[in-house]
Fold these 2 entries.
Entry 1:
Amino acid sequence: MTTKVWGTDDLGRSVELVTLQHNLFEATVSDLGAVLVSLKVPDKGNRQRDVVLGYDTAAQYFNNYETYFGATVGRNANRIENSQVTIDGKTYLLEANEGQNCLHSGPNGYHTRRWEVKEKSASAVTFALFSPRLDQGFPGNLELTVTYKLTDEGLEITYTGLSDADTVFNPTNHSYFNLNGQGSGTITHHRLQLNASSFTPIADEKSIPTGEIRSVKGTPMDFIQPKEIGEAINDPWEQLQLAKGYDHNFAIDGVRGHLNPVARVEGDESGIVMTVLSTLPGVQFYTANFIQDEKGKDGAIYHSREGFCLETQYFPNAMNTSAFESPLLEKDVLTTLKTAYLFKGESHGNV
Ligand code: BGC
């Protein structure tokens, strides 16, 4: 593990880069936003490739309100309709940042916070954040931690939350992956398998789910058998047209509370295979539809569909949708959520 000063953010705070290592894996994270800055994994020739999109500077991550590259998103990932939630009979107003709606908890996201480094070792680091009562509009003083840990198989991200009043706890990691290496072009030829027999259709371009949980059968959303991400992405099908590609929540098949398989993705050129597992019930599969000429790391310029996100989460707008499992964190109950991004190339066995 190495730690170095990265620079200062817009508030003049000094921020660090922490690099974790284990076997041929290397992850760099920062106390600014508990963000994942790079993730290097071996390809089929045992050459390390950085498989996440990102930026070079702390200032870019601090101002990252559009792409959320690598960000730890909280308290609530994804959208809340009309920027309001009702908890224990009381309505709390959040800050709208996408029309009337609240995306990724509004303009004061956790990616702008300086987290405390609570514990660190060669292969793991735990960041802690205190999010006071009415932070972003939510009730409850919330203590949360995010742990990044490299293992023999890849990267595990564990979140804990503890609040002194009932609140919302729905964090995610917003990394964009390109398994051929960041900055290497389109991801449309990656093969994806999604362990989801249903998804939550969106009502319109604002991307709030209708509340229906619909079967993927016979639709472009069917990734039960692996297929190329790009196979049906341009189909003239309403759901894809509304979002300009994939930008939908899928309901993960599995047993609630278990670390269930979510997805398996293969980089077509690198031979890198990523398997995602999570204890969360949903995953937002997003094909970077809205990215245009975005200046990234090491001189890369990213375009639409040059990365994909698998944001594990409670379903979007679940606090206002009775058919969706609630992301309510009960007062004084310590909750642990976990997502793992595991890598097995041809050179290192099968999952
Ligand atoms: C959303 C996208 C949004 C992206 C970046 C994703 O979680 O679903 O619509 O463009 O985050 O904010």
Entry 2:
Amino acid sequence: MIVGIDLGTTNSLVGVYDAGFVTLIADPEGVLLTPSVVHFPEAGEPLVGRAAARLRTVFPERTVYSAKRLMGASVGEADVEDLAYRVEGSKAGAARVRVDGKLYLPEEVCARILAKLKADAERALGVVVDKAVVTVPAYFNDGQRNATKRAGELAGLEVVRILNEPTAAALAYGLDKLGEHCRVAVFDLGGGTFDISILELNAGVFQVLATNGNTRLGGDDIDLRLADWIAERLGVTAPDITLTARLQELARDTKHRLSSEMEVTLAVPFLNDGRSGHCVCTRADLERLAMPLLERTRAHCLRALADAGLVQADLQEVIVVGGSTRMPLVRRFVEEVFGRCPNTTQNPDEAVAIGATLQAAILSGALHNVVLLDIIPLSLGIETFGGLMNVIIPRNTTIPFKAGEMFTNALAGQQSMLVRVLQGEREMAKDNWELGRFEIPFEPLPKGQARVGVQFEIDADGILAVLARDTRTGVERVVKLTSAVDVSDDAIEKMLEESLEHAFEDMNARVFTEARLKAEEMLPSVRVALSRVGAQLETTEVVEIERCIEAVEKAVESGAAQPLKRATFALDEATQRLATLLVQSAMKSPV
Ligand code: AMP
């Protein structure tokens, strides 16, 4: 079972696709959002999610939040100033969290969150969940993406795809149906981070044209300002840690209510001097406090547009993601910046998880006729010397994709090359499927001198175009083959099973074939060298070479890989002086 996971800085979500619907999975308390918080108690197992979030203000130094910000980063790079727990660098500089005497990598912390989502999903579905699509910000580099994969592995999940968050959101909004070259802006304002991404749909695949943002700007900042404002209204000075935590919770709750109500009356009992207090907070009050924070996103939006080489009018759609975009003020602001009303048809804090789940459904084959962001399920290649499979595009490569290699002639005077296009995971060409074959003619040349470039280009629909070109004459052939992606699940499974089952003998066959090709090349040249300069060798040397030749011939017949490798190696060693003599004689009397 493949689930979709939005591993957020503030909150995380898990979803599953079943019977044509995306279902987001609630925890045992019935809540969908799991705070991305892990609390390490003095004794016992860590707490994850809401239970951990409740302890954040009480035990700040043992409650880790926003670990995603540290993923794959060094202490120097990571933005750690405002974190209430300790972060230090490893010898290699990687950021690690210290709680008591123990150090944790950020991926170990995120693994705890993923493990909880996995457990919640397994409890709800009653099946083992061992694979996931996990989303990351579009700006995550390879190191950060790999750290996310490792977090999955540590949680017992194979991360079958890392998906960009804005792309996931665009999928959830159904923007893949908008048509070619359509451009969209994804405005994502969460609890602690702001991201703006400009995407373009090309041949069914979203490409990120530009991203920008601020990893320390979000709804939590609005909560802090509102909490200060409430404290002032209630006449609270120097609140203790518990009252501060209460005021912040109250501020968040008030902010949420003001997204649908115009004013909220706050009644707060037991302030730190024992009195109770009450005040009224209107939407206008909140907006006045939030506006300067929101205003900071404007420059990021304009920069992203400029980096993408676009102006507002080039966008076909603007979508909003992240819980903070529920605020009417944010929606008005987005409309003003982009000059168009944002599409708000999806739940902003669920869109990324829904997109991840749709991607999981596509990968598991539950959602058909969608090749968006697809991968090739089995390797593609051609047959080379000795009947070996030469992989040009390995399995699991995201399409569209292009790759090529140079080949040469195995025989002198050869006039054409047969290009057999193969698909499969086996080492020998004969065990893979042939998708097609064609001949490419080339000028007759000595062995190893012809140059034929073979290029595989696979488009977003999985259509494979194979091009072969004689680089000397420029003669080329292009052949289009049917979908290399559209392979039934059963066939893929069978191929993978067979490749595992025969892995050992396949590898032997490859090693043997490679050694045989080498032997077939060596034997005639050793014989030629013997006839030319053999007389200059000691008799014992000639006898040894003859013995080695015989051993190679026998090993070729035996069909065993390792003895043949050893025999060719011995022949190579025995003919070192012969080779030197041959070179010297060639230098004296150039042919
Ligand atoms: P996310 O990181 O996407 O989970 O977003 C979390 C942020 O969204 C937090 O700052 C929440 O306070 C904020 N949020 C969630 N619901 C609302 C709402 N109804 N109105 C305003 N902000 C909200």
